[in-house]
Structure formats: C-alpha cells, structure tokens
Amino acid sequence: MEMIRLSRISVVVGCLSTSLSLFLQGVYGQGQPYAQCGGQGWTGPTTCVAGWTCVYSNDWYSQCLQVTTTAGTTSRTTTTPRTTTSSSSRTSSSKTTTFVSSKTTTSSSRTSTTLSTTTRYTTTSAAPSATGCVIYVSTAGSDSNTGAINSPFAGIQKAVDTAKPGCTIYIRGGTYKPSKNIQVGKSGTASQRYTVAAYPGEKVIIDGDNMTGTPAALDASLDNADRGIFHIQNANYWTFKSLELINGPYGIYNRDASYNDFLDLITHDNYESGFQLEGNVAYCNVINLDSYMNRDPRKNGESADGLAIKQGRGEGNVVRGCRLWNNVDDGIDLWMFETPILIENTLAWGNGVNRWGFSPFEGDGNGFKLGGGDPDVPANHIVRNCFSFRNAVDGFTDNGNYGKLTLDHNTAWKNNGTGFDFADSPSKLTNNLASNNKATYTLGSGGSQSGNSWNIGGTWNDARFISTDTSLVTGPRDSNNMIPASNFLLLADGTTTGATTHM
Ligand SMILES: *[C@@H]1O[C@H](CO)[C@@H](O)[C@H](O)[C@H]1NC(C)=O
Ligand SMILES: *[C@@H]1O[C@H](CO)[C@@H](O)[C@H](O)[C@H]1NC(C)=O
C-alpha cells in the first residue's frame, strides 16, 4: 500500500513546478481532511494537516477529522485508539454509541444528537473471514451438491438458504443469471455475521435480466418481494462484498434490515435504483459503491437513483467512498429519510440526463439530493469531502429538508443548477467550493457559512485548478478499490477549500 501511495505522490510532483511540488510533498506527508490515517494494514500517513486530528473509527479505519468543541456536537479530541479488542468493536453496543461518547464523555446528553462516525468494518482491507463455515457457489455447480469447494452449489439462493449464522458464501467467478431474485430474510448476530462475497480475486456478475420487473411496464407497480437482485428484508448482520449487480429490478434492495455492510459493490443498468435502503435501517455501511446508468422505464426516470436511502429512519448509517453517475434521477437521494446520515469521500456526476429517450422525462438530476418529502421531514445529514459535477440540476440540495445539515469541504463544479442549494434549511456550510455552476448557493434563514469560495471572494474559474480532467476520478479504482488520489479540482495555490481525492 505504501508503494502505491508513494508512486502516486511521485506522479503528482512530477507534473508540478518545483516550489509547488515541495509544498505538496509536505502536505501529503500528513493526512488531508477526512483522509484515512490508520487502521490494520495501513501504511500511509498517520498524522493529519494542521487543525485536523487522527481519530480512531474502527480497527480498520482511522480518519483525519477536525477538532470541534461546539456544545452538543461532536468533540473529537483524541488520537488514541480505543483499547478494546477487535471483537468488541463489532458488538452491537459499540455500534449504538459514537466514538466520542464511548471515548471522551460519559454524559448521556452528548449521545443524543451526535452523528456516529463509529462504524464497523468499513474498509476494503477487511476481507471477509473464511474460517469456519464456508459455502461455495459456482456456475458449474449443482444444488444437489454439498456446497463444499469441490462440490459447489449452482444457486446463490440455495447457499443463502443453507447458510447458518457465521457462514461465508463464496461465489466463484462468472456471470449468474437467476430467473428469480434472491431473498435474504434471516439474521446473523454481531459476532456471527453472514457474508456473501466474490471468491477473492474472482469477478462475479449477477445479471437480473430474467427476473420479474426488468422492466415493468410504464406505470405498473413492482411487488415489494420482487425488488432487488438481492431482496434483503428483516435480515440483520449481513456483509455483501465485491459483487456486480446488473439489469435487475433494483440491484440491492435492503428494507427493514440493519447492521449490514455493503463493500465494493457495483450496481448498474438496473431498472430502478442501483442500491436502496428503506424503512427501519440502522448502522448500515455503504462503502466504495460504484452505481451508474440505473433507470426506471416504468416511471420515465422519476425514481432510479445511484444510491437511494429513502422513506425510513435509523441511526448510524454511513456512505463512504462511493461514485454515483449517469443515473436517470439523482446521484444520491435521501427523500423522506428522517435520521442523520454521514456521507463522505463520495462523488456524483452526470445524473438526470435523459439517455433513454423517456417521454415525458421525469428525472430530477441532483448530484446530492439530501431530503425532501411529502410532507418534508427534517434530518441533520452531514456531507463532507464530496464532489458533485456536471449534474443536470443542483450539486448539493436540501430539497426541502428543513433540518440543520452540515456541509464541509465539498466541491460543486459545472452543475446546471445551483452548486449548494440550501434555501429551505438553517444549514451550516463551511469550506465548500462552488465553481462554474449556473448559480452558486442559497441558504435559509438561521443558517451559517464561513470559508466557502463565495465567502472568500474572487474568481473561481478553471484556471484556479491544477487539473479539471474528469478522467482522473471517473476511471478505474486502484488495487485497494479506492478512487485514485489525483490533482482533480485541487487549487493551484495550495489552499484547501473544497474536496480532495487524497483520502
Ligand atoms: C431467461 O428466461 C427465458 C424465458 O423465461 C428462458 O427461456 C431462459 O432460459 C432464461 N435464461 C436463463 C439464463 O435462465
Ligand atoms: C447543461 O446545460 C448545457 C447547456 O444547455 C447542456 O449542453 C448540457 O447537456 C447540460 N448538462 C446536463 C448534465 O444536463
């Protein structure tokens, strides 16, 4: 990992003037805002730039966070990892407390409004454990086999039905095309999770084209049970890893199901949202998802998003390191989700364009649609170090969510609506960068703002950036499944307004 990161730096400095390269070498020796700065297997920087502190999140992930002391909000004041064992970090009690409340305060009043950044198992380096029960599925298998590595099942559903808590289901490489979607409806425990993963090093595609609702007719309804290549309901403590889900009636549909981890998934060309969390959903991690070209012919583009966390509630949900692009509706959509969600290190672009000839076209086209409803509900979402560019409408919008949202170090560039549209909320906007959007920002009464590009003033055009080459962030992920670090939309003068891919 160190080799990879060092080579990135040498590529970076190779393109720059000597004085700037010296400056950047200094900066990137320390973690950038919201960058990883520790965790098992981590060999990159373990300290952060001035004003930022390396905070333990879980055994696999520490992160540079800003030390704040605002009453009633998070006070992240320590760099010391918790002294708990790795197994205790996966218990449900650790999931229901924030890092801060478990670490630096015993006041129960502090736990009520703080958005947890304590998550479980959130990095790609946390490979699914395959000790103990392992069940194999292969395109060359048979459901009358035993499920052992040399006697694999053919059906993913067969493996799910056979698995007991603690089992890992390894799907061997290949394309699977089940005619029925896969029902996941039972729970593991905090210490006995279920895992469904591609066999390490092998590429697994699950094609939903033969499932019901691909597509459903215009204005037809889609039965709840038919939603999702994986329909996950009343099923807690599952991990899904390294699967590509295409042409389905939704890719992942997780409803009334909590403590689930979704790592390194790809969802594209589905006939509804690529990925949806709905209902009573808590402590789910959506990490390093790529979700694109999802569309909904049955609604002419009204509701297929890259990532939808909609119509529900529950604490502790985290979105990190995702890319959501060219979806018919929005990149991310939090419509009628009532509880704060943490979104970071995520990019959305090209959403809301009618690439399918729908008529009349109903797509919205916001990169980050952070609420809305009928009626609107307030939710204090936190969005940081995210990029939103070239979307049909807004970069980031409260969309009627009248909660107090926090947006820090995000970049909105070349969106056809407003960069930061928070007209309906008393939100807090800090250190964000808006460049070349149709309009720059709005903010409701009671909101606060500082350090944003429009507060700093001056001209924020493309000449300000080291690079505007979108291929730096739209191409393949690196060997750790991270978005490659680059100069994309970094300011040439070295100031750190807006987002960075150095994370
Ligand atoms: C898909 O469905 C069609 C029609 O039901 C069937 O003929 C075909 O065999 C199915 N394909 C697969 C791969 O199951
Ligand atoms: C933004 O507007 C321009 C000019 O009308 C148009 O060419 C472009 O396709 C639009 N982009 C998106 C993402 O809608």
UniProtKB/TrEMBL annotation:
GO biological process assignments: carbohydrate metabolic process
Upper taxonomic lineage: Eukaryota, Fungi, Dikarya, Ascomycota, Pezizomycotina
Pfam family, one: CBM_1
Name the UniProt record assigns to this protein: CBM1 domain-containing protein
Region Disordered, residue ranges: 72-115
Limits of the CBM1 domain: 29-65
Gene Ontology CC annotations of this record: extracellular region
Family stated for the protein in its record: Belongs to the polysaccharide lyase 9 family.
Keyword annotations from UniProtKB, A to Z: Calcium, Lyase, Metal-binding, Secreted, Signal
